[in-house]
Amino acid sequence: MVRAEFLLVARLAWLWGGRERLPMPRWFVVLWAGWLLGQIVTDLVVRSSFEDYARGWAAIAFTLTNFAAILVLA
After folding, report:
1. Regarding predicted confidence, which is higher, 74 or 41?
2. Cβ-contact 11, 70 below 8 angstroms
3. Chain segment 25-38, per-residue pLDDT in tens
4. Average pLDDT, the chain
5. d(CA 67, CA 74)
6. Cα separations in angstroms, 54 against 8, 36, 70
7. What is the value of pTM for the model shown?
């Protein structure tokens, strides 16, 4: 089963090359990076299992990817 996130990642590289696109807001990238860094530190301190932190980190990464794809498509 192909998930929508994987299709967006594949499509994002092609769409990002367009000239008429909105720039990614810097505040969003800073908040996203802080969220990811905080989650990484938390998972290392709590010693979460691989399945748990891999799922969580992937969800955070796909949040940025989905937002970027929507921004490119808008």
Report:
1. 41
2. no
3. 888 889 989 999 99
4. 80
5. 11
6. 19, 12, 24
7. 0.66
Of 18, 19, 25, 4, nearest in space to 68 by CA:
25
**CB count in 10 Å sphere of residue 72:** 19
d(C-alpha 3, C-alpha 5), whole Å:
5
Among residues 6, 26, 19, the alpha carbon closest in space to that of 69 is found at 6
Angle 59-41-38 (CA atoms, 0-180°, nearest 5)? 55
Give 15's contacts (C-beta < 8 A, 6+ positions apart): 21, 69, 72, 73
Band (pLDDT 50/70/90 cuts) for residue 21 is low
